[in-house]
Design brief:
There is one protein chain. With 360 residues, the protein is an alpha/beta fold. 36% of the residues lie in helices and 15% in strands. α1 crosses α13 (345-359) and α4 crosses α5. The longest helix is centred in the first third of the chain and has 16 residues, at 16-31.
Length: 360
Amino acid sequence: MSDRTIYIAITNHGFGHAARTAAIAGKLQKLLPSVKLILVTTAPRWLLECYINGDFIYRQRGFDVGVVQADSLKMDLDATLVKWQNIIASKDEIIAEEVAFCQEQGVSLVFGDLPPLATLIAEKLGVPCWMSGNFGWDFIYRDWGTEFRAIADWIGDCYQQCDRLFRVPLHESMDRFPVIEDVGLTGGDPKYPLDKIRDKFNLTQPKERTILLTFGGLSLDAIPYHNIDRFSDYQFITLDAHAPDLPNLVKALDRAYRPVDFMPLCDRVVSKPGYSTYAEALKLQIPIVSLTRSGFAESEIILNGMQDYGYHQVISPNLFFADNWDFLNLPLQPPRLQAKLATDGNHAIATAIINYFGAQ
């Protein structure tokens, strides 16, 4: 099966989609070392290499917009609309270029998370298109008024041409997709010995007084780091290169280390609503303190999922940006449900791809 080639198109939005899709690709490569991986994304190569140990082809392309954002909470709807209009206007040229590339590479399966154009590329190429995700972009845009209605309709039409959707937990209905298969949580797993991380980053506090601050690839504007001065007996971890130098703030800037690698050492994760961070924390049963996020339809769904399945605390942006972090003194809330989420998403999707290759 050395000639089995998969073209993996990743939505052009932050780091979360790239991280969770690269985790699937890494599992696929581990189970089938002869597979030829093509990762198509605007996310940086170093991020993908955190999840994929072996070789892969890196094709730096973006086929959708996601949401244009200044940071993890602030959205620019006008800029998002203009970019989508430009993409749709040039879709024929994009499709032709990608089909030619795929033919040169011998691609036999297109996999997407979750750019709509992936289905049209696969159709023109004459191969199946499979996807994974917890929401479609049409679901996000339909809340944004009449200007986005035509784009949402076009995206929904594209998704109807997907041959197989692997629907991960914390999802909307995704009922535009004709074939849906539910799988467990996807995302990365810790890959370093905890003692090595403690030594490398001088983590001296016990787990119950260690907190991870992570807001994805877009980060946040003006995080009030000065508030951690009030918690001098705690140690905070951030991957933010712009964070100030503070005695109890560890700046983990080595790109080989991801948020998930630090989670087992932490009492809780402070974050914004986002599937990838939530999924990794829920898999490890690490409590989540989450800001709310207005205007993004996915947020309410995954916030509800977080409260159903994990220890949690939900805070407003006003509380987070206040001149104290009194919320850290409040008790965490237990999960509302006793049921547990399946955590086998990476393996289930990778196995399905391998079975497809074997059945050709």
